[in-house]
Structures are given as structure tokens and as C-alpha cells.
Write a structure and sequence with these properties.
The chain contains 4 helices and 7 strands; from the N terminus they run βααβββαβαββ. By secondary structure, it is of the alpha+beta class. It has a single domain, classed as Gcn5-related N-acetyltransferase (GNAT) (Aminopeptidase, 3-Layer(aba) Sandwich). β2 and β3 form a beta hairpin. α1 packs antiparallel against α2. The mean pLDDT is about 95.
């Protein structure tokens, strides 16, 4: 068996990534509206969205997608309120790889890539009750900032979103 390869996603990966997220990302905690998620992944072809993916023997096993944003400016330190920050949008792992640390590894590679680009603040969110995502985020160094009602995106359980951030100090 060949070694696991982690690399940046390219336009030719979009179809496989779209198939993977809808086949293996659906659960009561994930908000995956088909039109929006598909458009998000299509933006990889334009470089407005980026992703790190893992594959072995040509089989896509997981990915983490992210983009530069200003949507969390209210959470930014005052001296960086006007700076772009990153938002980790999607993270999905093939069911056969669950519990093996691949999600944490992809998240770590994404953080490393963003830090190399000069990004200082990286945001990520999850359903408040998604313990697996919470553990992966904590393991990568993310700190919870806020939990708020979000019934449109979180129709199950508590209906709340937890926002976390990783501050990178150059």
C-alpha cells in the first residue's frame, strides 16, 4: 500500500471532493446545503477557496477547505480588525478513516499553509454538540470564543454554533 499523500487541492479534484462530502460528511451536526457547498468547492478552480486533501493510491480520503474572509472582524483583536483572516469552511474524512487522526492532520496542514501565507487568525465553527469536531479543533490549538443560537444552520440538538479561533503569532 502506498503512503498517504497530503497536498493542495486543484480544480481537477473538485468533483471527487463534492462526492466525498455528500457521501461521508452528512450527519445531524453538519450543515451541508447542496447548492452552497457545491459552489464553495467550485471556487477552488478560481483560487478564492483553497483546500488540503489526503489521498492514497489515487483514492480521496478527506479534505479541509478554507478561504480568506472578513466575516469574523468583530472577534479580531483591535489592532487586526481590518486584516483578512481565514475561515475553515469544510472538513470531511472518508468513514473508513474515522478515528485515525486524519482530520487533525489535515487541519494541521491547513493551519501550517495559512501561517506560511501570513494569516494570523483562523476561525472555524461547529455544532455546539459535535464532540468529534470539538476534539479535533482543540487538538489543533483552536480556542472556543463564542456559542450562539443558529437554528437555520443547526436544526438538530441545541441549535447552536460554537465559534473557535487559532491565533498565530509571527
Amino acid at each position: 500500500m502506498n503512503e498517504l499523500e497530503i497536498r493542495r487541492a486543484a480544480a481537477h479534484d473538485i468533483a471527487g471532493m463534492t462526492e466525498l462530502i455528500f457521501a461521508h460528511g452528512a450527519n445531524p451536526w453538519n450543515h451541508l446545503p447542496r447548492v452552497e457547498v457545491t459552489a464553495h468547492l467550485q471556487a477552488i478552480a478560481k483560487d478564492s477557496v483553497q483546500a488540503m486533501l489526503a489521498e492514497r493510491d489515487g483514492k480521496l480520503l478527506g479534505f479541509v477547505s478554507f478561504e480568506l474572509s472578513r466575516q469574523f472582524a468583530g472577534y479580531q483583536p483591535p489592532e487586526r480588525r481590518e486584516q483578512e483572516h481565514a475561515y475553515i469552511c469544510e472538513a470531511v474524512i472518508h468513514r473508513d478513516m474515522a478515528g485515525q487522526g486524519l482530520g487533525s492532520r489535515l487541519l494541521g496542514e491547513s493551519v501550517k499553509f495559512l501561517a506560511e501565507q501570513g494569516v494570523q487568525d483562523i476561525y472555524i465553527d461547529r455544532h455546539e454538540e459535535n464532540a468529534a469536531s470539538a476534539g479535533m479543533m482543540r487538538k489543533a490549538g483552536f480556542v472556543e470564543l463564542d456559542t450562539f443560537p443558529d437554528p437555520a444552520r443547526r436544526p438538530s440538538g441545541s441549535g447552536r454554533t460554537t465559534l473557535s479561533c487559532l491565533r498565530i503569532h509571527p
